[in-house]
Every structure is written in structure tokens, then in C-alpha cells.
């Protein structure tokens, strides 16, 4: 068992689910929910209230895997914030380092979901989860974690630098899954990679950090900055290397996607949860893929998260 801190966002996800009014309509290379007209009233089939956010989703993965999971994030003083803390308590996540912001609402996403295709559009008011400067890296001194798992901090590079450098100073390892705003500031992002032990990105994100067209090129070049890199490529699987081994892997299972929300969080945190348990790099990649598949097979970003006790079947994975 390891002690793992998840640093990131907490959100309430409100799903509006329908089978016909939210049916996607193709327009060129894109699609819209074409039957939702301005000024109209639309009857939907179901509403579901879930809890999500990158920090929360990853913390739940670690807790279900049997690790000592701690979440650091912001919520508002409202019913959504209460739902976040209740969920974390139920999952066995230490929520004592959460900051409650008096003048901010808890981050909320409205997710329009087509129940037939699993396609979705997410409308997000980040609220308290859009603020990170109030986080104190001194919390890491008190917790003294084995790992710090970081999802996007909305491009707050100063807070990222404070936490990543503190983790290095106290001997904690770091896994980082940057978001759009961090990737929009590549120069500063590159400076932070010296603190990172495992970097998890998708193919298009990797191409924003280093030049390259193929997964092999991107993995090789990222390996010059971070010892362990994972680059995913949707239904094509991905590539991962740790300085000694490089694996090309496919998807765990071709299963119908019910809701893709949280798939990336499930993959990254699933890999670390298994790896921090002393499992091999190869085995951790398989579990990460299985965890992601399980999550997209259920509604919500974390209902399907695995425990690590499940019997897993083989999947396409090859050492190169």
C-alpha cells in the first residue's frame, strides 16, 4: 500500500440523458445535438447526479485499490460540495485537506448525453475548481506521500511548480496528466518536466510538447525529458516506455461506450494504482486499460472504477 495525494478538481456532474432529442446530427466533420432548438422545451428521459473531476476520480481509483488516498482541492459551501465530501468519505478518501471557499460555488458540469450512442457535450462552470493559488504545498510536508498525482490546474504554472518541486524535495514521486491550459504554455511546462517521474498524455497532447508524427517518435522524444511516458491514442491504444521497456498496446476490450467521461482519469490513475502496488510496468498498463474500459461502460466518471482484485483477460500488448 502506498500513500498517494491527488491534486486537482472536484465537480458535481449533472447528466441530462435522452435517446432522441439529443441524437447527434453530422455537420461536416463535426456533429451537434440537432433537435435542441432555441426557445423550445425539451423533455428528457432521465437526470443523474454524479461526482467527478480529475482529482476526485483519481483519488477514488487509489482508494478502491487499497492505497491511502488523500485529495487536495477546492469546493464551495453548498450542496454540491457536500455531495463531493460525502462521496469521498464513502470511498475511504481522506478529504481533510479540502479547502471550502465561501464565495465560490462548487464546480458543476451539465452533461448532455445521447443514451444510444454515448456521445456527450459538457457544459462546465468550474467555480471553486477554477482556483488553485490558495493550495499550500506545505500540506505535502504534513502528509509525506509516496506519490503525488496531478491533473490539470487550469494553467496555474506557479502552483504546479510549488507542488512539483516540493514533492521532489521531500522524496515523493510525481505522475502528471497536464490539461489544455498547461499544454498552451509549453515553455513553462517543459521546465516542470524535470520534477515528473511519469507523464501521461494523448497523442495530440504529446505533439504539442515535442515534434513527431508517430507514437514511436513522440515517445522517444518525450523520453529525453521524463523517465516514464505514456501516450494514448483512443481506439488505437497507445505506447509507453520507462527507459528500459517500451510497449505498444491496443485497447483492453471492444465494449459499447455508455459514457466516455473520466476515461483518461481512469487510465492514468489505474496505471499508478497498480504500479504503486509493486506490479510490473506491463501489468500496470493492462490494468490501466481495463480500468478505463470499465469506467466508460457505466454512467459517471468513477462508478466503474476497478479494485485491482478482478481477474483480467489478455489484451494486445507487445514489447518493442
Helix and strand layout, with pairings?
Blueprint: E1 3-7, E2 11-18, E3 24-27, E4 30-33, E5 46-52, H1 54-64, E6 68-72, E7 74-76, H2 79-91, E8 99-101, E9 107-114, E10 120-125, H3 138-143, E11 147-150, H4 157-170, E12 173-176, H5 180-183, H6 186-192, E13 198-202, H7 203-209, H8 215-222, E14 228-232, E15 238-241, E16 246-249, H9 263-275, H10 281-296, E17 317-319
Helix pairs in contact: 1-9, 7-8, 9-10
Overall residue-averaged pLDDT value: 95
For the termini, the CA-CA separation is: 30 Å
Give the total of domains. 1
The fourth-level CATH homologous superfamily is Ribokinase
Please give the share of residues in helix.
Answer: 25-40%
* Inertia-based shape: globular
Tell me what portion of residues adopts beta-strand conformation.
Answer: 25-35%
What CATH calls the topology is: UDP-N-acetylmuramoyl-L-alanine:D-glutamate ligase
Low-confidence stretches: none
Report on the biggest sheet. 9 strands, mixed
Using DSSP, what is the number of strands? Answer: 17
CATH architecture: 3-Layer(aba) Sandwich
**What's the CATH first level?**
Alpha Beta
Rg over CA atoms, rounded to whole Å, is 19 Å
Amino acid at each position: 500500500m502506498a500513500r498517494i495525494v491527488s491534486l486537482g478538481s472536484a465537480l458535481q456532474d449533472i447528466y441530462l440523458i435522452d435517446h432522441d432529442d439529443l441524437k447527434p446530427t453530422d455537420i461536416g466533420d463535426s456533429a451537434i445535438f440537432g433537435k435542441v432548438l432555441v426557445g423550445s422545451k425539451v423533455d428528457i428521459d432521465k437526470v443523474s447526479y454524479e461526482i467527478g473531476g480529475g482529482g476526485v476520480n483519481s483519488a477514488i481509483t487509489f482508494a478502491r485499490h487499497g492505497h491511502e488516498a488523500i485529495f487536495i482541492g477546492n469546493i464551495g459551501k453548498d450542496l454540491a460540495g457536500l455531495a463531493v465530501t460525502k462521496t469521498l468519505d464513502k470511498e475511504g478518501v481522506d478529504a481533510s485537506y479540502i479547502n471550502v471557499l465561501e464565495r465560490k460555488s462548487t464546480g458543476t458540469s451539465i452533461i448532455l448525453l445521447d443514451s444510444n450512442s454515448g456521445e456527450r457535450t459538457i457544459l462546465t462552470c468550474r467555480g471553486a475548481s477554477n482556483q488553485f493559488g490558495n493550495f499550500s504545498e506545505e500540506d505535502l510536508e504534513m502528509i509525506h506521500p509516496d506519490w503525488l498525482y496531478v491533473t490539470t490546474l487550469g494553467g496555474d504554472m506557479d502552483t504546479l511548480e510549488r507542488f512539483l518541486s516540493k514533492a521532489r524535495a521531500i522524496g515523493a514521486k510525481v505522475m502528471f496528466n497536464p490539461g489544455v491550459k498547461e499544454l498552451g504554455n509549453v515553455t513553462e511546462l517543459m521546465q516542470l518536466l524535470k520534477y515528473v517521474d511519469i507523464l501521461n498524455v494523448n497523442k495530440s497532447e504529446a505533439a504539442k510538447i515535442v515534434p513527431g508524427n508517430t507514437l514511436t517518435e513522440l515517445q522517444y522524444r518525450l523520453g529525453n525529458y521524463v523517465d516514464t511516458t505514456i501516450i494514448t491514442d483512443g481506439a488505437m491504444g497507445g505506447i509507453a516506455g520507462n527507459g528500459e521497456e517500451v510497449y505498444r498496446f491496443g485497447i483492453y476490450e471492444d465494449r459499447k461506450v455508455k459514457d466516455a467521461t473520466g476515461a483518461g482519469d481512469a487510465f492514468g490513475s489505474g496505471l499508478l494504482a497498480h504500479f504503486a502496488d509493486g506490479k510490473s510496468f506491463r501489468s500496470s498498463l493492462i490494468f490501466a486499460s481495463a480500468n478505463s474500459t470499465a469506467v466508460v461502460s457505466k454512467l459517471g466518471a468513477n462508478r466503474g472504477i476497478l479494485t485491482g482484485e478482478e481477474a483480467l483477460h489478455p489484451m494486445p500488448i507487445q514489447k518493442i
